[in-house]
Write a structure and sequence with these properties.
Layout (H helix, E strand, L loop, with lengths): L1 E8 L5 H9 L11 E7 L7 E8 L2 H15 L15 E6 L4
Antiparallel strand pairs: 1-3, 1-4, 2-3
Length: about 100
């Protein structure tokens, strides 16, 4: 299994709007080849930080989706959203065990 984690921090008091956008998302990625699951988390110590974790059967399916569908999947981002400079990180993982 391949896991992609995107982390970012909302700078302008729009964290709740961003979270609601994930709740109401159109689920475009759900039909992607190799997509298994998405979890969106927000650490209790910083509710303006959001972690988007997607689970894939392998890295090539993730890379294919990222290259071909990333733009359309971000159409629901609330207008006016600003992120804390330098807060955006993307990390990749391989599952060792469950």
């Amino acid at each position: 299994m391949f896991v992609a984690v995107s982390i970012f921090e909302v700078a302008n008091d729009m964290a709740e709007e961003v979270k609601q956008a994930f709740v109401s998302r159109p689920h475009l990625v759900d039909k992607a080849n190799g997509f298994l699951e998405m979890k969106v988390l927000s650490p209790q110590e910083n509710l303006n930080e959001i972690w988007v974790t997607t689970f894939w059967d392998d890295e090539s399916n993730y890379q294919n989706w990222y290259k071909n569908h990333m733009k359309e999947s971000h159409q629901g981002i609330p207008k006016g959203l600003k992120l804390v400079p330098g807060s955006t990180k993307v990390r990749f993982f391989q599952q060792v065990t469950s």
